[in-house]
Design a protein that fits this description.
This protein is an alpha+beta fold. It has two domains: 3-126, Ribosomal protein L10, N-terminal RNA-binding domain (Alpha-Beta Plaits), CATH 3.30.70; 127-172. Helix content is 59%, strand content 16%. It contains six helices and five strands; from the N terminus they run H-E-H-E-H-E-H-E-E-H-H. The chain has helices spanning 3-19, 33-46, 55-62, 88-99, 117-124, 129-171, and strands at 22-27, 48-52, 78-83, 104-110, 113-116. It has a five-stranded antiparallel sheet with strand order 2-3-1-4-5. Helix 2 packs antiparallel against helix 4 (88-99). The radius of gyration is 27 Å and the shape is elongated.
Length: 172
């Protein structure tokens, strides 16, 4: 890799760090190409990305970004998972690490906050943005349906009373 390629890689990584809200740092030693492909596919489905990085170049890219505190984690065979959703990358990485012990969560960063491995695992238990949006829509829609049911109930009762009087009149 020549100097211009390295500069381009640092620039691309800096763009990733500046444009994302969550980064998970992992070790992937011993994972096969198939396992890496599977993990990347799961990340893609969740709206996240997974990238193997060069430690020295990643430390250069981290310098001056909100994730500067993560630079100590970049030793050995490292890869990063990142996403705009603060929970998506953590959920997929932690879930995959439970299935495959060759993926080790080292820590991560959420905005300017540096998280250890336990912090990333705790973050993975939270609902994603899409799940939260669905809950909010459900909470907003529920009162509207209840209000419609309440408004329809008196009209239905009046109709039943009139029907009962009509049946009495026919019987007489």
């Amino acid at each position: 890799m020549d100097r211009t390629q390295k500069a381009e890689l640092v620039s691309d990584l800096r763009g990733v760090f500046e444009g994302t809200s969550m980064v998970v740092v992992t070790h992937y030693s011993g994972m096969t190409v198939g396992q890496m492909g599977d993990l990347r596919g799961r990340m893609r489905e969740a709206g996240a990305s997974f990238k193997v990085t060069k430690n020295r170049l990643t430390r250069l890219a981290l310098d001056g970004t909100k994730f500067t505190g993560l630079s100590d984690m970049f030793t050995g065979p490292t890869a990063i998972a990142y996403s705009d959703d603060p929970v998506a990358a953590a959920k997929v990485a932690v879930g995959y690490a439970k299935e495959n012990d060759k993926l080790v969560i080292l820590g991560g960063g959420l905005a300017e906050e540096v998280l250890d491995a336990d912090g990333v695992r705790a973050l993975a238990t939270l609902p994603s943005l899409d799940e939260l949006r669905a809950k909010i829509v459900g909470m907003i829609a529920t009162p509207a349906t209840r209000m419609a049911q309440v408004l329809q109930a008196p009209a239905g009762q009046v109709a039943r009373v009139i029907g009962a009087y009509a049946e009495q009149g026919e019987a007489a």
